[in-house]
Specification:
alpha/beta, two-stranded antiparallel sheet, Ptyr_pPase, Phosphatase-like_N, arsenical resistance
Length: about 250
C-alpha cells in the first residue's frame, strides 16, 4: 500500500511522505484523532536562506511561517529521492517556490489569465516531462505548465532530453518532483499518464488520462514513437484551449 506503513499491531498509518504531500486529505474530519504531523528533520543551513528569499518574494501573500513550512516540506520530499545532492538546495528553492505559487493560485490570492495544466506520470522523468516541454514550447508561453510524479525517479533521464532535442525542444532544467495537493488544486487541466488513481480528484478541474507506454522501458525508437504521440496529443490540447500552436511544423 503506497503511502502507508503497518505497525506490529496491524494498524496502518500514513508515511511521512504521504503526510507532507496530502496531509489535509488524510486528516479529514472524523471521530478519530488526527495523526501527528511528520517529525522534524535536521535541515542544512542553506534552507534558511531559501526561506528568507521566498518570504520576501511572497510577503504580500503568505506568512513567513507558511513559507518556512513549505520550504522544509519540499526539502524533505526531494532529499528522500535525490541521488545527486549537489543541486538539492537549488531544486528545493524552485520546488518550494512553485508550490507556493500553486497554493496562491488555488486560494485565489494570485490571479492568472493563462490556463494551468498539470501533467502527472509515475516517475516524472519521461512522459510528463516530455508533455510539459512540448506544451511550453508549442504554446509560446500562453499556458502555465507543471509536472509531477506519483513515485518520482531520483533524477531526470538523459534519453528524454536527447529525444526532445532532436525535435528542437528543451527541458529547461526540469527534475522529478513529487505530486502534491497544492499543484492539483491550482490546475485547470490535470492530465495523467499511467499513474492510476494516485492523483486526488477535486471538482472544477478537467481530468484526462493519456494512455501511453512508459518510454523509459522502450528502446530509442520506441521512445521516439511515444514522444511523437505526446506531441500530437499536446497539439490537440492546444486546440481545446483555443491557443494557436507555435512552431507546429517540426
Amino acid at each position: 500500500m503506497t503511502g502507508l506503513i503497518r505497525d506490529s499491531d496491524g494498524v496502518t498509518t500514513p508515511t511521512v511522505d504521504a503526510w507532507v504531500r496530502f496531509g489535509r486529505l488524510l486528516a479529514s474530519e472524523s471521530i478519530q484523532p488526527a495523526a501527528p504531523a511528520p517529525a522534524a528533520t535536521a535541515l542544512p543551513p542553506g534552507v534558511a536562506t531559501i526561506v528568507s528569499d521566498l518570504a520576501y518574494r511572497f510577503n504580500s501573500t503568505f506568512s513567513r511561517e507558511t513559507v518556512a513550512s513549505y520550504v522544509a516540506q519540499s526539502f524533505l520530499l526531494l532529499s528522500q529521492r535525490a541521488r545527486v545532492r549537489e543541486h538539492l538546495l537549488t531544486m528545493t528553492a524552485r520546488y518550494a517556490a512553485d508550490r507556493l505559487d500553486a497554493l496562491a493560485t488555488a486560494q485565489g490570492l494570485s490571479l492568472r489569465d493563462t490556463p494551468e495544466v498539470l501533467f502527472v506520470c509515475v516517475q516524472n522523468a519521461g512522459r510528463s516531462q516530455m508533455a510539459g516541454a512540448f506544451l511550453r514550447h508549442l504554446s509560446g508561453g500562453k499556458v502555465h505548465v507543471r509536472t509531477a510524479g506519483s513515485s518520482p525517479a531520483e533524477t531526470s533521464h538523459p534519453r528524454v532530453e536527447v529525444a526532445l532535442a532532436e525535435v528542437g525542444v528543451e527541458l529547461w532544467g526540469e527534475f522529478p518532483k513529487p505530486l502534491t495537493e497544492d499543484v492539483v488544486r491550482a490546475a485547470d487541466y490535470v492530465i495523467t499518464m499511467g499513474c492510476g488513481d494516485a492523483c486526488p480528484v477535486f471538482p472544477g478541474r478537467r481530468y484526462m488520462e493519456w494512455d501511453l507506454a512508459d518510454p523509459l522501458e522502450l528502446d530509442d525508437q520506441g521512445l521516439r514513437v511515444v514522444r511523437d504521440d505526446i506531441r500530437r496529443r499536446v497539439l490537440g490540447l492546444l486546440v481545446e484551449l483555443s491557443i494557436e500552436p507555435q512552431d507546429a511544423s517540426r
